[in-house]
Specification:
The protein has 399 residues and is an alpha/beta fold. Helix content is 40%, strand content 15%. It has 15 helices and twelve strands. The protein has a seven-stranded parallel sheet with strand order 4-3-2-1-5-6-7, sandwiched between helices. Strands 11-10-8-9-12 form a five-stranded mixed sheet, with helices on one face. β1, α1 and β2 form a beta-alpha-beta unit. The radius of gyration is 20 Å and the shape is globular.
Length: 399
Amino acid sequence: MSIFEMSASSVHRDGPVRVAVLGCSGSIGTQTLDVCRRHADRVRVVALSVNSSTGSLVSAAREFGCAHVAVSDAGRAADPVLSELPEGCACGAGPRAVTELACLPEVDVVVNALVGFAGIHAGYAALEAGKSLAYANKESIVCGGDLIMPLARPGMLIPVDSEHSAIYQCLVGEDPESVRRIWLTCSGGPFYGRAREELAGVTAADALAHPTWSMGEKITIDSATLMNKGLEVIEAHHLFDQPIDSVRVLVHRQSKIHSMVEFVDGVVKAQLGGSDMRAPIQYALSYPERWEASVERIDWCSADPLTFGEADECAFGCLALAREAGRAGGTLPCAMNAANEVANESFRQGMCGFLDIESTVARVMELTPVERVESLEQLDEVDARARALARDVLSEVRP
């Protein structure tokens, strides 16, 4: 079942939406809290998690009066600042404690803003517990879409990624059989238009200078390599039940059109707006309603012209590798994602070159047998093996 087959169903709640924000100190998490402040009469934050930013956790827990928090990094469980949590606030430690927040009886919506493969367990648990899942953790769907999508009940899985939120909004009320293709827009990142040989010497600082979006470091590097767009192609394949090759990447430098859907009759629907993640975050919390804007409106009379271009999969080979993994399916996207996470971090630490990210992912994919996805435990094992392979490949690299 695709996500847009579910979108005609309405979700009705009495009183404020009770929200758990997993990864509340990151880019998506902090913007989610901005939306919650803006709509304090409609949203109540009841649970929060961080990886290691305990100071930010305490500050947010005190502001919102949270009863439950968790720190994923168990080594930070004894941080003195945690003694300043609100009276009666329960504090858990370790990845399992974060997952348990997603199952709390008093939670209606889980915002999964965790980074990387680590977020898959919380997303799975949230849907299994019957919660609405507003997720920005695309890796969950890329790696475990075969497991997660069957758990999603009507109207209970809303994407936070700007592109997939746009597609979702374009498809509300439409017949799934009428879709011809999806146009997945892409800013092109900071290196758009450069030839492959020009990319060999770019630095992490260069790659982190994204032209239109303010994001966390991992996703910003993924945007520079176009791996982020590759992950989003696989994500769209699962969410909207479309073949990999029916999801077309379209470079749109202004980041005003967040994606488009083309129908069999030639009509194309697009969702437009500013480059601000608070808009799709708010839609995920408000669905099926629309609330007053939390973002600056665009004066379209004075807006820059909108332009479009082709994504260069020869120069930016990570996009082609992701398509290859998506076509193969099974456990290969999980291995690809794991290799990318390791290589991405290595590049940010100055331990490998920009193009080494792509070559590492390619080598790990070559060495990975493709199996049918059967369980989270299996994906954990595939992820661990791929990470070890990636580290072995990178150990031979000299930056």
